[in-house]
Amino acid sequence: MLDYLYDGTFEGVLTCIYHHYYTEKAAGIYRADSYQSSLLGGCMEVETDRRKAMTVYEAIERKISTFDLRRIYRAFLSDDAEKETKILRYVLLGFRVGARVSSLHGDPVVFDVQSMEKKVNVEKERMLQFVRFSVMEGGVLYAKVEPDNDVLELIAGHFCDRYRNDPFIIHDVRRGKGLIACDGRWYISFLDEGDVPGLSEDEEKYRRLWKNYFDNIAIKERANPRCQRNFMPVRYWKNLTETGPV
C-alpha cells in the first residue's frame, strides 16, 4: 500500500481514489507540499487528471448519492489534517453499502466525515453573520476574514444576492485568496494584502460612529461575556468593526 500525494485540489483527491482502485491500494492521501515521509511504506505523487476525477465523481453520485457527493465536498473544505484519508474511507464504505452510508451514524468512518461537514456548515453560517465590509477607494466593499475552514465559495451566493449592485471583496487572509464579485457574478482568486485598495476618506469616520453606537446601546449591567463568546467566538473579534480597532 502506498501513501498518495496530491496537489491540494478536490479533483486531486478524486484522482487518488481512482488510483486506489486501478493502480495500488492507498494507505492514505496527503498534500504533497506538507507530507512527511514514513519509514513504514512508500509514497507516490499523483498528477491530477480531470477525466479520472470525473469518473470517480460520477461513480459517487451514481453508486452512493448526490447528498453524499455534497457531503464529501464540504468535508474536503474543512481544515482537518486527515480529511483526505477520511474521505477515502467514506467513499470506499459508500461503494460497498450504497446510499444508506449516510445513515450509519455509529460507524466511525461516517462519524468522521459528518463531523467535518458539520464544522464547515457551522462556520459558513458564522461567516454570514460576522463578515463586516469597509468602503475602500473606488467604492469597492472589502471584508477581511480568517475562517478555520475554506468556506468562501459557500457564502458567495448569499453576498452576491445581498450586494448585487456593489462590487465587493471578501479576503481570506489565512489562505491568501479572495472572493471577488461584481454585478452578481463572482470568482475566487489568489489575493495578497498588498493588492487591496486603501480605505476611503469617510471609512474611519463611519467606523468610529458604528463602534460608538455599539458601545452605547449595550446595557453594562447585563453584560455576559461568556454568553457573548458562545454566540460570537473570540477568534472572529479582531475583524469585526464593533470589537476590533478603529
Keywords:
246 residues; three-stranded parallel sheet; 8 helices; 44% helix; 16% strand
Explain how this protein is built:
There is one protein chain. By secondary structure, the protein is an alpha/beta fold. The chain starts with a strand and ends in a 15-residue tail after the last helix. The strands form 2 sheets. The chain has a 5-stranded mixed sheet, with helices on one face. It has helices spanning 10-22, 50-63, 66-76, 83-97, 108-130, 152-162, 203-217, 225-231; strands at 2-6, 26-31, 42-45, 134-135, 141-145, 168-172, 177-182, 185-190. The model has no long low-confidence stretch (mean pLDDT 91). Strand 4 and strand 5 (141-145) form a beta hairpin. It has 8 helices and 8 strands.
Termini gap: 55 Å
Using only C-alpha atoms, the radius of gyration works out to: 21 Å
Query: What portion of residues belong to β-strands?
Result: 15-25%
- Derived from helix and strand composition plus strand pairing, the structural class reads alpha/beta
Query: What is the string of helix and strand elements?
Result: EHEEHHHHEEHEEEHH
Global mean pLDDT: 91
Kindly report the spatial arrangement of strands forming the biggest sheet: 4-5-6-7-8
Q: Got a strand count?
A: 8
What profile does the largest beta sheet have?
A: 5 strands, mixed
| Shape estimate | elongated
Number of helices: 8
Q: How much helix is in the residues? A: 40-55%
Uncertain regions spanning at least 5 consecutive residues = none
